[in-house]
From TrEMBL:
The keyword Isomerase is annotated on this UniProt entry: yes
UniProt domain Glucosamine/galactosamine-6-phosphate isomerase: residue ranges: 39-169
PANTHER family hit by this protein: GLUCOSAMINE-6-PHOSPHATE DEAMINASE-LIKE PROTEIN BT_0258-RELATED (PTHR42892), GLUCOSAMINE-6-PHOSPHATE ISOMERASE (PTHR42892:SF1)
Transmembrane segment boundaries: none
Protein name as catalogued: Glucosamine-6-phosphate isomerase
GO BP annotation list: carbohydrate metabolic process; N-acetylglucosamine metabolic process
Keyword Isomerase on entry: yes
Organism: Azobacteroides pseudotrichonymphae genomovar. CFP2
Keywords: Isomerase
Pfam family, any one: Glucosamine_iso
Length: 658
């Protein structure tokens, strides 16, 4: 089974020569070496190979190697690959001296930590001697922190310095816990966490922002810069802005400006993290282009935004002044390019996302027939469908299509304990009124409330009971939202895919069991259209995992007649990011009333409002993000000279691999 098909989605409009360089011409704006890979998996494999080679080279001369590592979701694939090489290829870690880059402070007893993350994801699975593992202590008294930091620096110096430094670039641009303007001379020290760092720690380790300590003890930039080799990584579209700042940013006295001075550093990124780099996003500025429809659309949209003109007002001089002479030579005039791009964008707009029956569909994004269509909407969590495509969801129902919604995970870890307390208290009141003799429920409710309210460790209180209640809260909210949009509960399916049901932030790897559940559902339903979440910036990676599961299932089914002859797959975004305009293939406009209806449907998910644990680095609530993104898409269409809509939901078609 193909388990990483989501990484192939952007291949279509990025020619490989832009990221697999044959010469240095395309990188003239980049201040440090960058390697771009097709996928996170490929990058992790290459980095693992480099680490393994360095370890083995030292083993041949019977010398140790000092490696510094850190916690974080983006490094898990590298650690998994190192574990695989250890088990399958016999890589020994006996000569490795391991340093933890940072630790959170102050840590409470039994709290998660950076080091516990490293133990569970790497250390416990390899044969590194415990005496060769060094970590900062997040539980020491504050009075001895300074001496503790000095001792850590002395240990690093005693082993001959760090030979190999493995760094993750954060979404906010931090290195370790060194903030944006950390001094170049900073050594190991205590720092206070800023809000982006707290949210990233919440997403990867602590589960809720209230559980994140206020500070961390971290190696400083001076310590990092003294490492003999630095390998830095950034994966995913949410890291693109930080990658651009590090590689091409011009702001002085930042982490980026210091890193580019290291003599042996390389930044390893996947194509999603690279999309803001000039050679990827605006290749016409640095090299000869392989022009296609999407690249032309991107170039013209960029030109319109830069000089603040709609498409049809661009002139030959505008093209000449902005490095787009190639397009003039190909199409003879600005007008010919303008009208081509204008019509291309105009044809993406449709008020009939399921296809308009009995009409010419030559220039429409959706086919007129069959009508009505059987439509399956896959939602990673029990609210992504409404947040991202609630207006289209409602439109499909109103236009008499046969709509089904499939919630892939329970979403149970994203419900606060306070919500469980509120509902259990309600259940207990109802029990007293209608079933007062039910002693089993009385004992169960009492134990859960004492556990959640007072932290009492009580025999018989199973965390699974609490997760069950949290999952049912989300189910009922999802059903309420669907009902509000006009969909009956018998067309809603909750799959509770096994990979998600760990009760923790960290999930299990994808399995054939997960994919098999989707295969069985698709065979049962045989939909004409499938909508899936293509929003891969979810901080826990659940969206990507759910997308990979659906795409793997579809890939397994592609020989079946119902799928080959008729079915199309549309990808939506909205909870975490939006499609770039050069990618949009179907744009569904929403009226003010439809946008208000969508908001009201989102508000049915009460547990995901202000108190939701996983809002990410975006301060806005989900309904606010959704409306802002939908309005921004509509505004961009207006600025380009197209119709002025209140809001637009955007979609991209996924093409089956043959």
């Amino acid at each position: 089974m193909k388990l990483d098909l989501s990484s192939k989605i952007i291949l279509e409009h990025i020619p490989s020569r832009y990221y697999q360089l044959q010469n240095e011409f395309e990188t003239r704006q980049e201040k440090l070496p960058v390697k771009i890979y097709e996928s996170e998996k490929e990058a992790s494999s290459q980095i693992c190979t480099e680490i393994a080679k360095a370890i083995r080279e030292r083993q041949t001369i019977n010398e140790p190697i000092a490696i510094a590592v850190q916690s974080g979701n983006s490094l898990q694939t590298i650690y998994q690959e190192l574990i695989r090489v250890h088990r399958e290829e016999g890589l020994s870690f006996q000569n490795v001296i391991l340093f933890n880059l940072y630790e959170y402070y102050p840590l409470q007893p039994h709290s998660n930590s950076s080091f516990s993350f490293l133990k569970s994801t790497l250390i416990d699975h390899i044969n590194i001697p415990s005496r060769q593992i060094y970590t900062l202590n997040g539980r020491i008294n504050k009075e001895v922190i300074l001496s503790h930091c000095l001792q850590y620096e002395e240990i690093i110096a005693r082993v001959g310095g760090i030979d190999f430094m493995l760094l993750g670039l954060s979404e906010s641009g931090n290195i370790g816990i060194n903030m944006l303007r950390s001094g170049i001379n900073s050594s190991t020290r205590l720092v206070m966490l800023d809000m982006p760092s707290k949210k990233e720690a919440s997403d990867s380790i602590f589960g809720a922002i209230n559980n994140v300590p206020i500070g961390a003890i971290t190696m400083g930039l001076s310590t990092i810069m003294q490492a003999k080799r630095i390998v830095m990584i950034a994966f995913g579209g949410e890291k693109a802005s930080s990658v651009y700042d590090v590689v091409e940013g011009n702001e002085p006295d930042t982490i980026a400006s210091h890193l580019c001075n290291h003599l042996n550093i390389c930044l390893h990124i996947d194509r999603r993290a690279a999309h803001q780099l000039t050679r990827i996003s605006r290749p016409w500025l640095v090299t000869h282009c392989e022009w296609n429809d999407k690249l032309i659309r991107r170039a013209i949209v960029h030109l319109c935004q830069k000089i603040d003109k709609p498409i049809l007002k661009l002139t030959n001089k505008d093209y000449q002044d902005n490095h787009l002479e190639e397009l003039l030579s190909i199409y003879n005039s600005a007008y010919n390019v303008n009208i081509r791009v204008f019509n291309d964008l105009q044809h993406t707009i449709t008020g009939w996302p399921g296809g308009k029956p009995n009409t010419d569909d030559t220039n429409r994004p959706e086919k007129a027939f069959p009508y009505p269509k059987k439509i399956a909407i896959f939602s990673p969590h029990p609210d992504d469908d409404i947040i991202s495509m609630g207006g289209t969801f409602r439109r499909l129902i109103e236009q008499n299509h046969d709509v089904y919604v499939v919630y892939e995970t329970s979403g149970n870890i994203a419900v606060n304990d306070e919500d469980v307390i509120r509902y259990i208290s309600l259940f207990e009141n109802i029990r007293q009124r209608y079933d007062s003799t039910n002693a089993i429920l009385k004992v169960k409710y009492d134990k859960i409330l004492r556990f959640l309210l007072h932290g009492e460790e009580i025999d018989g209180v199973d965390i699974l009971d609490i997760l069950f209640v949290k999952a049912r809260i989300r189910r009922q909210e999802a059903i309420a939202a669907c009902r509000y949009l006009g969909l009956s509960a018998n067309k809603v399916r909750f799959l509770d895919l096994p990979f998600y049901e760990t009760g923790e932030i960290r999930k299990n790897p994808l399995s054939e069991k997960d994919i098999g559940i989707i295969i069985d559902y698709l065979r049962e339903l045989q939909p004409d259209r499938i909508f899936v979440a293509g929003d891969l910036a979810d901080p826990h990676g659940t969206h990507k995992m759910c997308l990979d599961i659906v795409l793997a299932a579809v890939d397994e089914l592609k020989g079946e007649k119902w799928l080959n002859n008729n079915c199309r797959i549309w990808m939506y975004r909205g909870a975490w990011q939006e499609w770039r305009i050069e990618d949009i293939e179907m744009a569904v406009p929403l009226s003010p009333e439809e946008l208000r209806t969508k908001r009201n449907a989102i508000l049915r998910h009460q547990s995901q409002m202000e108190s939701a644990p996983f809002l990410g680095n975006d301060e806005r609530l989900f309904w606010q993000r959704s409306e802002d993104r939908n309005r921004a898409t509509a505004e961009l269409y207006r600025q380009l000279g197209l119709a002025n809509y209140e809001a637009i939901e955007a979609f991209v078609e996924y093409k089956l691999l043959r």
